[in-house]
Amino acid sequence: PPPRRSAAPQRRTEWSLHAYPALLQGWSLGSGPMLAADKLLLQSNVKQRAIQLREKELNLFNDNFNAVGTQSAVLAGFAMTSFAEIDLPHNAYYATKACLHLCVTVSICANLLCTASTTFVSVWGSGKALRGKDGSMDKAVEGMLAERAFIFACFGVGLITTLLALMSASWILMTRDVAFVATLGIAWCIYVIVRQARRIHGKFRLSKGDVVTFDDILQSPVVPPSMLDDDDNESDVLIPRSVQGSRRTTSYDV
What whole-number distance in Å separates Cα of residue 55 and Cα of residue 51? Predict the structure, then answer.
């Protein structure tokens, strides 16, 4: 009879079949924490990328506000110089002098208000976005977006009143014929500025449907919910502030 050689492989097969469920059970027990860690890592990466996209909006608003604030400061300097350096003749009409002083005053106030507002928004908005709790970046960007209308309105008022002050000065310092021609030129300049502002704003205006938002990403189940409380709770920040009654003298509320 032929020799029996199938006993050893059969034992190996039986041992592997009995050991496979144990190995599978051990692998399944070890994959639980690994999957949880991978899930947390995925959530962190998605939220970090979303915050980086919002940071681009924050930098865009800061650049825009810096440009507008710089131009407003230049216009305020021009208005202040014209208010202090121009010597008005004594025989000038009271109405033209009153119009000049009023336009110069309004121009200086509007331009300085624009400059101050851009400074406040850039400093405090960026501070809230970078030093605040989870979700502060979104609130800072939305707040800076809401402040744009007031800042641009102040800039427009300061620009128009500067030109009106120039028109009033032309009737005081020039002859009547030259002042009439200068008034036509300044009026045409004001009309072109207003028309260009409306035309360019209408060309590049974004409707609500065209604006790219990140609500679908930040509110998805993949991203963990925000830990930011209401706006009134400003005490819990990453960098501690000096509170009333404490012994600390350094304040980080900049």
Answer: 6
Task: Tokens for 221, please give them.
Answer: 């189940």
And the tokens for 86?
């121009």
Tell me how many degrees the CA angle 169-94-103 measures, rounded to the nearest 5: 45
Residue 248 gets which letter from DSSP? Answer: -
What confidence category does residue 231 fall into, taking pLDDT thresholds of 50, 70 and 90? very low
pLDDT digits (tens, 9 = 90+) for 114-134: 999 999 999 998 888 888 887
State whether residue 238 is helix, strand or coil: coil
C-alpha to C-alpha distance for 129 and 51, rounded to whole angstroms: 10
Structural tokens at position 16: 């592997």
Return the structure tokens found at 13.
């097969």
pTM of the predicted model, to two decimals? Answer: 0.67
- Which segment of 47-51, 190-194, 201-205 scores lowest on mean pLDDT? 47-51
CB atoms within 10 A of CB 57: 19
Is 54 in contact with 145 (CB distance < 8 Å)?
Answer: no
Residue with tokens 């003298």: 249
Please tell me which residue, 82 or 8, carries the higher pLDDT value. Answer: 82
- In our burial notation (b when 16+ CB lie closer than 10 A, e otherwise), range 107-137 reads bbbbbbbbbebbeebbeebbbbbeebbeebb
Task: Decide: 158 and 110 in contact? Cβ < 8 Å.
Answer: yes
Whether residue 119 contacts residue 76, with contact meaning beta carbons closer than 8 Å, is answered with no
Q: Name, in order, each residue with C-beta under 8 angstroms of 76's C-beta and a sequence gap of 6 or more.
A: 107, 108, 111, 112, 115, 158
